[in-house]
Amino acid sequence: MEIKSHISIQSLSVFFGQQRVLKDITIDIPDKKITVIIGPSGCGKTTLLKSLNRLLDPLDGVKVSGKIFVDGEDIYDPKIEVTHIRKKMGLLSQRPQALPMSIYDNVAYGPRIHGHKDKKRLDKIVAHHLQLAGLWDEVKDRLGEPASRLSVGQQQRLCLARGLAVEPEIILGDEPTSALDPQSSQNVERRLAELKKDYTVIVVTHILRQAKRIADYIAFLYLGELVEHGPAQTIFSNPTDPRTRAYLTGEIS
Amino acid sequence: MTLPLTRRRFIQRKIEESVFKVLMAASMFIVIGCLLLIVGTMIWKGLPALNLAMVTQTPKGGYYLGREGGILNAIMGSLYLASGATLLSLIFSLPVVLFINLYTRKNSRLAELTRFSFDVLWGIPSIVYGAFGFIIMMFLGLRASLLAGIVTVALVEFPIMSRAMDEVIRMVPRPLLDASYSLGATKLETALKVVIRQCLPGILTAVLIAFGRGIGDAASVLFTAGFTDRLPTSLFQPAATLPLAIFFQLGTPFPEVQQRAYASAAVLTAMILLISLLARGLVKKSTKHIIK
To answer: Residue A20: helix, strand or coil by DSSP?
Structure first.
C-alpha cells in the first residue's frame, strides 16, 4: 500500500540542555490518517509532538537538529514565519486550556488574529466549528459565558473547535483524553475519527486500548528512540522489534 | 503493626496546635488594634475640625493661622498627582514586566537583574527620589510643578507596581501561553489578549498598591510639586498635596490648626478607602473569565 505522506521527519534530534530527549528520528506521517504515537511515559512522545508546531521554545535552552517537512516546507527554516507553521496545526493538550474569555471569543480568537473582522462571518465560523467539535448544541444559548464554566470534557471539545477555527491541516493531540471521564473521552475519540476525513491527525497516548481503537498508523517510541512504526494492524498483530512486543504485552510500561 | 501514636504524643500535638493558634490570633489582634488606634486618633483629634467647608474650599488668607477655608487645593492636587503618576508608572511597568516574562529565557540574567533592581529601588527612601527629581527639574530648567511631582512620584511607584505585577504574570501557566501560540498568535498578541486578561485582577491590585503609595507620599513631592493654596490648572503650575498639607498644619504652634491636620489625615484615609472599595468592585468584575 502506497501511503501519501503529509509530514516528513528526517533524523530529528532534540536536546534539553545536555540531555538528548529525541534520538535521530525519521518517519513519514501519512496524510488524512490517524497516527498514534505510543510509548511509556518520559519516552519523548510529547516532545516529538511539540517539535511539530515549534512549541519547543529555544528560549528555554532546547536545541533541535534534523529536518521536518510539512507539505514539503522545512518548518525549522529560519526564513519561515513560526505563526504560519502553527496556524497549520491545531493542538489539543493534556488538560484543556481554555483562554480567559467567553466561549464565543475562545473560538473567534484565532480567526480574529488572522484578520477576520466581520461580525457575521465570525458568527458563522464560530457556529460551524463548534458543530464540528460536537459542542454546539450544548453551548449555543450561552456563547457569552466564560469558558471556564464549562465542564472539563466540554472545554476539551471547545479547544478542538478553537483549533479547527484557524483552518489547520493537521490536528495534534497530546494525550487529549487523559483528564476526561470515560464518556467525554469516547466523545473526543469519535470526533477525531470523523475528522480524519479532512485532517491529518497525530495523537500521543499512553493508553494502548485507545491506540487500538483509533489508530491507522502507529509509531512506537522508547527512551527517545523511534523503535518501530507502520500500519496499526501490522504493528499490533506482528511487531518485529522485541521491545515493541514487550511494550504491547505490558512487560515494559 | 500499630502506629506509634501514644497518648502522650497526642496531647503534645494538641498543645502545639492550640499554642500556635493563640499566637496567630494574638498577632492578628495586635495588627488590627494598631490600625484602629491610628484611625481612632485621627478621628478623635480631627473630628472637631472636620466640616464641609474643609473639603469644598481652598485656604483663605491666614488658614494656617486658624482662619477660614479648606484643603480642597490639597485634595485635588493629590488626586491629580497620584493619578498622573500611577498612569505614567503603568505605561512603563506593564511593558517591562511583559518583556521579562514573555521575551526572555526562563532563567534569564537580564530578567533576574531587572527584578533585583526593582527590589533595590523599592527600598530607596522617597526623599531620595525627591532629591533626584529636583536635580532633573533644575537640569531641565523646570520649576516646582505638578508635572515634576508626577514624574517623581511615578518613579517612586514604578518598582512597587512592577514587582507586584511581575508576581502575578509569572504565575500564568505555560500551557495557557502554548494554547495561544499554537493558534498562530504572536507573543505580543498573546500578551495583550491572553496574559493581561488572565492577570487583570493582579494588575489592578498592583496599580492600586502603587496609587496608595503615591497619594500618601510626602517626601518625594516636597521639592518637586511645591505647594500652593490655589487649585492646579496646568501641569506647569505647582500643586498642593495632602501629605504636605498635613505636615505643614502639624508644624504650626496652633492647636486648632493641628486639629485640622488630623482631620486632613482622616480625609486622606477616607479617600484611599473609597478608591480601594472602587477598585475591589472592578477586580471582582474582572475575575469572571479567569482560568484557574
So the answer is: strand
Instruction: Tally the C-alpha atoms within 13 A of residue A233's C-alpha that lie toward its C-beta.
Output: 1
Scanning the structure block, which residue is given the C-alpha cell 511539540? A50
Is B176 in Cβ contact with A99 (below 8 Å)? yes
The grid cell for A203 is 495523537
The β-bridge partners of A9 are A27, A68
Q: What residues contact B258, with CB distance under 8 A and at least 6 apart?
A: B45, B249, B250, B252
Q: Give the structural domain span for A76.
A: 1-88+170-253
Task: Compute the C-alpha angle A95/A76/A80, nearest 5°.
Answer: 100
Residue A115 lies in a domain: yes
pTM for the complete prediction?
A: 0.87
ipTM of the complex: 0.90
pLDDT the model gives residue A4: 81
Domain B55-286, architecture per CATH = Orthogonal Bundle (1.10)
- Nearest one of A5, A159, A144, A133 to A68, comparing CA atoms: A5
pLDDT in tens, A150-164: 999 999 999 999 999
Cα separations in angstroms, B113 against B107, B126, B156, B169:
11, 22, 19, 17
**Cell numbers placing B291:** 482560568
The strands making up A19-30's β-sheet, listed across from edge to edge, are: A73-74, A62-70, A5-16, A19-30, A225-231, A217-222, A34-38, A200-204, A170-174, A89-92
> Does residue A183 share a domain with residue A162?
no
Domain count, chain A: 2
Tell me which chain A residues have a C-beta less than 8 angstroms from the C-beta of B286.
Answer: none
CATH number of the domain that A26 lies in? 3.40.50.300
Query: What's the rounded Cα separation, in Å, for the pair A52 and A56?
Result: 9
Chain A residues in contact with chain B using a Cβ-Cβ cutoff of 8 Å: 53, 55, 59-61, 83-84, 86-87, 89-91, 93-95, 97-102, 109-110, 113-114, 146-148, 159, 162-163, 166, 172
CA within 13 Å, CB half, B277:
6
CB atoms near residue B234 (< 10 Å): 9
Element (H, E) at A222: strand A217-222
Mean pLDDT, chain A, rounded, equals 91
Residue A43: which of A171, A200, A192, A220 has the closest Cα? A220
Give the minimum alpha-carbon distance from B212 to chain A in angstroms, rounded to a whole number.
28
- Are A179 and A205 contained in the same domain? yes
CA distance A246 to chain B (A): 33
Measuring CA to CA, which residue among A6, A64, A56 is closest to residue A35? A6
Beta bridge pairs of residue A37: A204, A219
Domain coordinates of chain B in residue numbers? 55-286
pLDDT digits (tens, 9 = 90+) for A53-100: 898 876 678 899 999 999 988 999 889 899 999 999 999 998 999 999
Q: Which of A167, A186, A208 is the last residue of a domain?
A: A167
Q: What is the pLDDT of residues B55-96, one digit of tens each?
A: 888 888 788 887 888 899 999 999 999 999 999 999 999 999
